[in-house]
Amino acid sequence: MAEFIINKEVKTDTPTVEVTLSVDKPLALGRHTFRLVVVDDSGNISVPDEVVVIVADTTNPTAVISGPRTAAFGNSFNLDGSKSFDAGGGKVVTYLWTYMGQG
Ligand SMILES: [Ca+2]
């Protein structure tokens, strides 16, 4: 486990390291580059190698629809999807409405 801060080296004697994150302390959505330099037991130092990790929103949003309890015959009314929400670092940007028929 390690907290990674930009340009601050994390040193381990193990060949793997956990990039410790949480919903409270996430990496932003998008591309993030990590660099590795290794040192051998004689003190020789490698050239750096890099990997790009794309942090993506892979969580589906939740739709929440509401409308008036009753609507007067022949009168327009509004449907409300504003309580819909997203998780995974994204936001709701499109609302797709469908009339499903009577009943
Ligand atoms: Ca999402």
Can you walk me through this structure?
Helices cover 0% and strands 14% of the residues. With 103 residues, the chain is mainly beta. The protein folds into 2 domains: 1-56, no CATH class; 59-103, no CATH class. The chain has a two-stranded antiparallel ribbon with strand order 1-2. It is rod-shaped and about 85 Å long. Calcium ion binds next to loops.
Number of beta strands: 2
Number of helices: 0
Biggest sheet architecture? 2 strands, antiparallel
Heteromolecules bound: calcium ion
Q: DSSP strand (E) fraction?
A: 5-15%
Write the layout of secondary structure elements.
Blueprint: E1 30-36, E2 49-55
Antiparallel strand pairs: 1-2
Calcium ion (CA) is lined by residues 57, 59, 61, 86-88, 90.
Main attributes of the structure:
single chain, 103 residues, mainly beta, 2 domains, two-stranded antiparallel ribbon, 2 strands, 0% helix, binds calcium ion
What's this model, at a glance?
This protein is mainly β. 0% of the residues lie in helices and 14% in strands. The protein has 2 domains: 1-56, no CATH class; 59-103, no CATH class.
